[in-house]
Amino acid sequence: MISYARQDAEEPSAAPPQAADDHIAPAPRVSVQAFCETMETATAVQAAGEDRRLSKAHLKIQMGGMAAAIEAYRSAPTPNVIILETEGRGDILAGLDHLATVCDAGTRVIVIGRVNDVTLYRELVKRGVSDYVIAPVNALDIVRSVCGLFSAPEAKAVGRIIAVVGAKGGVGASTIAHNVAWAIARDLALDSVVADLDLAFGTAGLDYNQDPPQGIADAVFSPDRIDTAFVDRLLSKCTDHLSLLAAPATLDRVYDFGTEAFDSILDTLRATMPCIVLDIPHQWSGWTKRALIGADDILIVATPDLANLRNTKNLFDLLKTTRPNDRPPLYCLNQVGIPKRPEINASEFAKAIESQPVVTIPFDPQMFGSAANNGQMIAEIAANHRTTEMFLQIAQRLTGRGEAKKPRKSFLPPFIEKLRAK
C-alpha cells in the first residue's frame, strides 16, 4: 500500500504562496522517479533536479504518466518517491488504485494534476498520496514538495546554513562571520554554531577566546564516526546559544579534502542546530565551492578595491547560475575609509554588482584590534557602537528574523511602590 507523510496537510485551494524567506530543508539521499505527460512538467522536474536541495537525490524522468508508472513497476521495485502527472480526474483515482497493487510499502507519491477540487484532494489523501500539486508547476514547486516529504510537520525550521566568504584574502570575512554569529545567538536568541573551515589558519578559537582540545578536524578525518553524539562532543560552548566547531590551526598535516568531505558533518549539524555559520576560507577547491553553493544564505565580504570588485562580481555570477531558485547572495563592504588609500565608491561598487551592500563597515583599527587581541566580540567592548548595529542588521537579513523582543523597563513600578509605601 502506498504510504503518505502529510496526514494533516492543508487543502490545495487554501495554500498560500511561498514567503520570501521560506526555508526549504534539503532532501536526503533518496531515489525519485517522475512520470510526466507534458514537456512543460518534465522540464520543471528536470530543473528541480539541478537545485542544490535535491543534489543528493537520484532523479529519473520518464514520459507516459500514470500508465507508464504502472507498467514500469510490474517487474521493478519502486523508488522512495514517485512523481505522477495526470490530466483527468477519474483517471487519477482509478490509476492510483491500480498503482497500489504494484507499489512497494513505504513509497511516497506526489501527484501533479490540473483539477483544483477539495473533494478530489481528500480522496487522494485517503489513498495515501503524500502531496497534490496543481499544474502548471515550476522547479521550486517540485523542490518544495519533495523536500517537504522528509521534514516533520511539527518540527521547528532548523538547519539553516549561512556561509560567509571573503572576496579576497585579508578582507575581514572571519571577523564578520564570528560577530554576525554572535548577534544571531545573543540578539536573535537562536541556537547557533560556528564551523571554522580554515583548518590550517582559522581564527575562531582566538576570537571567542576558546582553546578546545577537539574540533572540526576530528570529524572530517573520522567520517565513519560522525553522528549527533560525536559532533556534540566536539562542540565548544561559547555562550548559552552559541557553540564553536573550532579549527586546529596547526600545520602538522596537510588539509587536502575531497569534494564531499564536509557533507556528513553539515548534515549532522543541520539535524540538531537551528543555525550553522560557516567561516569559509578564501580558497577555491571542490569542497569550498560545494559548501558555498549548498548554503541556504550567503554573505560575501569585500573591501572597496578593484580586485574585490572583480571577485565579488564573479561570485555573484556563479551563485546566480548555480542557485537559480535561491535568493541572491548578500555582500557587505568592510574596512571602508582607510586614510590615503584610493577606494571605489560604494555606489560605483553597487552599480557594477547590480546590488546594494547590506552594510558598509568603516575602517576602525583601534576597536577591531582591541577585540581581536582580547578574544572578544565588538558587541562586548562597544555594545552601542554603530558597527555592532550593523552586525545585527546582517544577522537579521541572513536569518529573515527580527530582533528578539526584550522586556522594556518602566519607571512606573518603582514609583507606584513608593506611593503604596506612603
Q: Can you offer a commentary on this structure?
A:
The chain is an alpha/beta fold and 422 residues long. It has two domains: 23-148, Response regulator (Rossmann fold), CATH 3.40.50.2300; 160-399, Rossmann fold (3-Layer(aba) Sandwich), CATH 3.40.50. The protein has 17 helices and 13 strands. The chain has helices at 39-49, 65-72, 90-100, 118-126, 139-148, 173-186, 204-207, 216-220, 228-234, 263-272, 286-294, 306-322, 346-353, 365-374, 378-381, 386-399, 412-421, and strands at 31-36, 58-63, 81-85, 108-113, 131-134, 160-166, 192-196, 236-237, 242-245, 275-280, 297-302, 330-336, 360-362. An eight-stranded mixed β-sheet has the order 8-9-7-10-6-11-12-13, sandwiched between helices. A five-stranded parallel β-sheet has the order 2-1-3-4-5, sandwiched between helices. α3 (90-100) links the parallel β3 and β4. It starts with 30 loop residues before the first strand and ends with a helix.
